[in-house]
Amino acid sequence: NAGVTQTPKFQVLKTGQSMTLQCAQDMNHEYMSWYRQDPGMGLRLIHYSVGAGITDQGEVPNGYNVSRSTTEDFPLRLLSAAPSQTSVYFCASRQQGKLFFGSGTQLSVL
Amino acid sequence: AQKITQTQPGMFVQEKEAVTLDCTYDTSDPSYGLFWYKQPSSGEMIFLIYQGSYDQQNATEGRYSLNFQKARKSANLVISASQLGDSAMYFCAMREIYSSASKIIFGSGTRLSIRP
């Protein structure tokens, strides 16, 4: 029972590089979301999706893109990484209100 | 607008004592849900307890209970008989059922440290 799987677990980027954080869930949840966690600021919602083909912005969407072509996958793209995007990123799916989290990706942008 | 506030950045509690973690919220949605999550030093997010806005009784899950005061817009987490393993970050979160496409937002968290 895999649940929510995030890859990679750790990543170091240089300013201006692009990358995609992967998120997959095998629970057939319609709702998926991405959060970033910074010290003293809790988890802030970046983007979310209520189903395949539907995405929307959260609290801090700038600098990030998402797409949802399948129910299972919800990748997060950084087009041009900036040091301000150094953070821990969590993907989560939801069923009946309860969030199921991935194990997180620690991203450093130098 | 949807908002969650946790005013205690950190707390120290003696083992076996009860502890209350504060959470206040703001919403114009008549129907909403409130959650508490625990994040130990390992980094995983662990669901603790849920309270619906129309639930008549306060939610309880083992040693965890949610002190829900709707008129005051507060949803404090109470941990009875604290244990060393309760040392962690605790996050309050809210979901608006009708507005905001049911997205869930979090407070800034409280770091709880249990002293032996």
Model description:
- Chain A has no helices and 11 strands.
- Chain A has strands at residues 4-7, 10-13, 19-25, 31-38, 42-51, 54-57, 64-66, 76-78, 87-95, 98-101, 105-109.
- In chain A, strands 2, 4, 5, 6, 9, 10 and 11 form a 7-stranded mixed sheet that branches. A 4-stranded antiparallel sheet of chain A has the order 1-3-8-7, with no helix packed on it.
- In chain A, a hairpin with a 2-residue loop joins strand 5 (42-51) and strand 6 (54-57).
- The N and C termini of chain B lie far apart (41 Å).
- Chain B is mainly beta and 116 residues long.
- In chain B, strands 2, 5, 6, 10, 11 and 12 form a 6-stranded mixed sheet that branches. A 4-stranded antiparallel sheet of chain B has the order 3-9-8-7, with no helix packed on it.
- Classes of the chains: A mainly beta (110), B mainly beta (116).
- The A-B interface holds A 31, 33, 35, 40-45, 48, 50, 56, 58-59, 88, 90, 92, 94, 97-99, 101, 103-104 and B 6, 9, 33, 35, 37, 43-45, 47, 50, 91, 93, 95, 101-109.
Features:
heterodimer, A: 110 residues, four-stranded antiparallel sheet, B: 116 residues, mainly beta, six-stranded mixed sheet, 12 strands, 0% helix, 53% strand, globular
